[in-house]
Amino acid sequence: MTDDRVGVGSRRESRETVLGLLYEAEIAGRAPSDVLAAQDVPTDEFAAAMVQAIDQHQDELDALLEKYSRGWTVDRMPVIDRVVLRMGAFELLHRPDVPTGACLSEAVDLVSQYSTEKSSSFVNGLLARIADEVR
Description:
By secondary structure, the protein is mainly α. The chain is built from 7 helices and no strands. The protein is globular and about 40 Å long.
């Protein structure tokens, strides 16, 4: 996955695009890559690559989330939380160029904006436990 030309602000916007595409896939019960392919407007390179990579690694990501969540299965997590957690876990595992703090901060910002009040601490805690193990 390459995105050397994408700046920090653009990455933030791209992550929102990724969130939207992954959310749509979850709600529709479709593969994220299929949702991406069906877009009428081209998706930026960073977002498209991230959606495809998360789709390819979803079983690995879900297993990691299950391992480090306390009292939650992935299926029981709110959809937005689950999607953001997959995004954050993917970056922690497969994007060493993205600093740990940025992974956590971006995930918390997204979930704070789009999910429940309690979701930010849940997402932060779970991704921090994963980061301690994989980074």
